[in-house]
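Box S1 | Example of a co-folding query
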Amino acid sequence: MTSADTAMDDGTIAVIGAGYVGLVTAAWLAETGRHVRVVEEAPERLDQLRRGIAPIHESGLQELLTAVMDDGRLSVTDDIADAVRGAGIVFIAVGTPPLPDGGADLRQVRAALGQLKKHVGATTVVVIKSTVPPGTTQALIESSRRDRLKAPVLTCPEFLREGSALHDCRHPSRVVIGGDDESAQARVAALFEELNTVVMQTDATSAEMIKYGSNAFLALKISFINEMARLCELIGGNIDVVADGLGTDPRIGRAFLNAGLGFGGSCFPKDVAALDETAGLHGHYFWLLKAATEVNLQQRRRFVVKVQEAVGGSLSGKRMAVLGLAFKAGTDDLRQAPSIDVIRQLVDFGAHVAAYDAVAGPKAAEIIPNVTICADAYECVRGADAVLVVTEWPEFITLDWRRIAGLVRRRIIVDGRNLLDEHVLADLGFTYVPVGRRPGKKSLRRRNASALLPSPAVG
Ligand code: UDX
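Box S1 (continued) | Returned holo structure for uridine-5'-diphosphate-xylopyranose
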């Protein structure tokens, strides 16, 4: 019996990869009393973590990280052998970035499994937390066995929303554990037994299908409501009221029916593309996924056309003030953010763009060229020919719009998230262009800031 084969302690856990999923999961596991070792290779991220600094903006994470690091329940290393020593369960939470053809790049997952082969025995359970397309884990289980990895390999997909990821760890809508080793699955299920939630044990491919199906279905919902919004703009009706009406049917539900600039982020665009690619590889043409993606792109183009129309036809030489850069409120994440596409198009049409985002602004300066990143919203709107709301940050609702009316060159607002109160803005002399209803047509309801914060319920 090698040292790797001795009985392992499920109270000691290793997490490989300190990205959004790995770090949040690790912090939550430490909060539940386990000893967690996090493996991170990227020198800058590792250095930040060693100093106790959360490298991502995620509600409550910094506080929790400080607490669990201070009492020694979470530690960070770049040495995988060190991290997995004595660990009963090892989570792989490395990145699976999109490949040019839409598929997922699995190199980091394979590399982690290759490393584990040298350092873990049959009594450790390896859990893939990274998002991998349907069929991947089963193939990895088989190849790992051929490669003599003794540890059982499972998948436990994540359903965490950025901005409320810790909340989602503490109150998951469900936990899905896929694989073909029931006793290993039971050990992983035990990690979640104190949570009042459904724990599903299933085969690996069904688990992956649940993960991709959830994201793809929610993306379809968003693209559906955005198409309905377009119809409301053409025929009449108010999309926010229509969404409320649809949402009262419990078979439909109100979540993910907010029309606007569509979906961005690290998950929906990537997972829809990967599922579509996987379907194609198996000879199935997934019409709905292609349509959802196309509608999503059109939504961004359509927004720029609206801006163009609102300023009288040409964007050349016009000053645009973009409020919000993150792909959604509550995060600093700019991956696949609508703001990037929108700003690129505005710049291509010759506009000068100033942008403000309290959280994502500093990161944006590196990613989006030809844009002036402003320190506050008032600086951003100064001299603007139009103010564009791109991310649904609640702080935009409570800006001093009277002051803004005095700072802009022209009082035009194109609201890509139906965030602002058009009654207030109309009284201040603004032309307000919303999504999914004709400009100037009064909304039947007002929005408030608290309604826009991430809701505890998963859609
Ligand atoms: C998503 C899933 O919700 C989560 O379960 C999974 O683990 C990761 O992907 P996230 O990417 O954090 O989470 O964001 P989410 O809140 O789901 O929103 C995704 C995108 O859809 C955002 O760009 C958001 O602005 C957009 N969206 C969401 C809408 O346009 N309308 C809506 O009604 C809801």
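The longest helix spans residues 204-235. Residues 3-202 form a domain with the Rossmann fold fold (CATH 3.40.50.720).
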